[in-house]
Amino acid sequence: MSTPIRLIVGLGNPGPEYETTRHNAGFWLADHVADDLRATFAMEKGFSGFVAKARHGGENVVLLKPMTYMNKSGQAVGALARFFKFTPEQVLVLHDELDLMPGEVKLKQGGGHAGHNGLRDIQSALGSPNFWRLRLGIGHPRTLGLAQQVADFVLHAPRREELTGIESVIDRCRAVMPQLLDGEFTKATQQLHRENKA
Fold it and tell me: What are the catalytic residues (predicted)?
């Protein structure tokens, strides 16, 4: 058994104008996970974000949606991790991923940030890349045959067929969340990645 997840961080940008954009896929999943754990998000200024507290197997689980904009996500994550004394290995970050197509998802621990500003900032705030990431595929404008620049692409809403893929991934991530909270990463990874091939 590995160290179970205790802090779940959904990445996105605050404000109604960003709500439906691809870059907010992490927020979408965080909202669903909070519902599944019967937890409610409330703004906590000291942590620069919306925080929800839940219980799983008799243990505390904290969910966070930073309200600092993507490139400053580490500010909120670092503050919460220090307050609750969570190690990087207990942190799971939910984020959009350009290198995966809509309908694909990858769970991984550590590694680089692949130019994702939210991940870069969290890595520097935690002083370690060893946190877990659930990478939710949103596709890349080139692979989707779009002429948009990446910066523009991530700040637009997915098209209907892409949204269907992203929503299916969100459901699959919700299904394995109890395993992640129990530290059963191998089992969760196998289940998630097997369905990518489907």
Answer: 23 (proton acceptor)
Residue count of the chain:
198
69 is in an annotated binding site: yes
Q: Looking at the domain 7-197, which fold is it?
A: Rossmann fold (3.40.50)
Residue-wise pLDDT for 169-193, tens only, equals 999 999 999 999 999 999 999 999 8
Does 196 carry a binding-site annotation?
Answer: no
Q: Which two tokens stand for residue 42?
A: 């409330």
| Coil/strand/helix, residue 50 | strand
117 is in an annotated binding site: yes
To the nearest whole number, what is the mean pLDDT of the chain?
94
Q: What is the pLDDT of residues 136-158, one digit of tens each?
A: 999 999 999 999 999 999 999 99
Token pair in block for residue 58: 């008799």
Which member of 23, 32, 95, 116 is catalytic? 23
60 is in an annotated binding site: no
140 catalytic per annotation? no
Q: Helix H segments across 85-183?
A: 117-126, 150-154, 160-181
CA distance 190 to 106: 10
- Side-chain half-sphere exposure of 28, counting CA atoms within 13 A: 24
